[in-house]
Design brief:
Layout (H helix, E strand, L loop, with lengths): L7 H10 L1 H19 L3 H62 L5 H22 L5 H9 L15 H23 L1
């Protein structure tokens, strides 16, 4: 539904569409007229004050409804921005994990460097996503669904293959988070 441009006639239509505003807005006119015909300064002052209050209350009701819609729109936009920001971060982590998955290893020195790079990626991931994911999601992302990062450690496959499994499954969990938040 398209929102009409703010004009005086749209304002009048909105005032008349709200029951409370209809009861208080038009009530201000007869009260003002009555105040001109009533004898006694206190009765006049009371009717004028009541008419003034009714007019302001009608305007408040219209403003409050519009303000609620603005707040809802801002919240929806904020959630959208948060989601976009999360996707950008996940995409960056995805690219880093992909690079680690594809990095060729040839010497013992590069294996230890690779291990440090994986640990650095995990630390960076925790730091940047700590406020954006629940603790459970972050734990599964870093440590895997079984809660142990090195699930394949101490098998006969060797350290390099263990690390390949760790970073590969980390990479897959990043993909799952991206899909979930897209």
């Amino acid at each position: 539904m398209e929102t009409p441009r703010p004009t005086f006639w749209v304002f009048i239509r909105v005032i008349l569409s709200d029951w409370m505003a209809r009861m208080s807005g038009p009530a201000s006119v007869p009260l003002t007229v009555a105040a001109t015909y009533v004898d006694g300064p206190w009765a006049k002052a009371g009717l004028i004050a009541l008419a003034f209050f009714c007019a302001w209350y009608a305007a408040y009701r219209v403003w409050a409804a519009e303000r609620e819609r603005v707040i809802e729109a801002e919240n929806a936009l904020g959630k959208s921005k948060d989601k976009q920001e999360l996707l950008l971060i996940l995409n960056e982590i995805f690219n880093n994990s992909k690079e680690l998955c594809e990095r060729p290893l040839d010497a013992k020195d590069s294996l230890s460097r690779w291990r440090k790079d994986i640990e650095s990626l995990f630390k960076y991931t925790i730091e940047i996503l700590q406020s954006k994911l629940s603790n459970a999601e972050l734990n599964v992302l870093i440590n895997g669904p079984m809660g142990e990062r090195y699930v394949f450690h101490n098998r006969s496959s060797g350290e390099q293959q263990d690390l390949q499994h760790v970073i590969y499954f980390f990479h897959e969990r990043i993909v799952d988070l991206i899909k979930k938040n897209s």
